[in-house]
């Protein structure tokens, strides 16, 4: 169900800090036209930590409706529903169920460092509240909490859990997941720098920050891998290598928002505090990166 190039979409804000729904609609339309195969709304790159529950619900409803306007071209919309209080995540999930979205991206609880027993109970509670497919989200660099392959195999037995976004960067886990989890369990990379290799080794796709800026190229990589044209996929990936890296020159999504504004795909790079604007040093890095991309891609 969830595979290919899925965009970890930014949340556009006005200079006053309100969600810019006009800009969001244009982004969704553009991503569909460029070949993206899915959208993640209100994830890490979407500044989920500074969005209220009501904003997440409205974003979900709006994004699902905007995607549906494309009829046969509609692509799946997933929404981040995770937090580090189980009761809160359960309540949010219940409110999101009827917004028209296709599934959830559910991050591990952060800061409070639950045991594996606690993680199993946490995800079981969310699974019981959900009426939609759930992608687990493992990003230990941000959460200080890691989903081991063995625990993932237990979570895969839950009725709505259909896959995982793994941002651990540990490619050895692909084989472990394939051995321990059901055959149709989706394995998605959450790391653009290793995403192409991840998919060559048997992954099903990438939930990508880079795809915000270069959706067509990221979709092409996935199509080429599916066709087993690995050298061509690697060539495009190499051309994107600086972008993969430099989108993290400062905390995500600060650089990607600046880049989207620089290529005129976003009216404002406004961030909600405590995130702030890209520093002059960061702007110099990103400006050089975008200039480099013009040597390879006409769309920049």
TrEMBL record:
Keyword list, A-Z: Amino-acid biosynthesis, Cytoplasm, Diaminopimelate biosynthesis, Lyase, Lysine biosynthesis, Schiff base
Active site: 137 (proton donor/acceptor), 165 (schiff-base intermediate with substrate)
GO cellular component, as recorded: cytosol
Domain of life: Bacteria
GO terms, molecular function: 4-hydroxy-tetrahydrodipicolinate synthase activity
Pathway membership, UniProt: Amino-acid biosynthesis; L-lysine biosynthesis via DAP pathway; (S)-tetrahydrodipicolinate from L-aspartate: step 3/4
Binding positions (pyruvate): 45, 207
Subcellular location: Cytoplasm
Site (Part of a proton relay during catalysis): 44, 111
Matches recorded under Pfam families: DHDPS
Function: Catalyzes the condensation of (S)-aspartate-beta-semialdehyde [(S)-ASA] and pyruvate to 4-hydroxy-tetrahydrodipicolinate (HTPA).
HAMAP family according to UniProt: DapA
Record-stated family: Belongs to the DapA family.
Subunit structure: Homotetramer; dimer of dimers.
Annotated protein name in UniProt: 4-hydroxy-tetrahydrodipicolinate synthase
Organism: Thalassotalea euphylliae
Gene designation: dapA
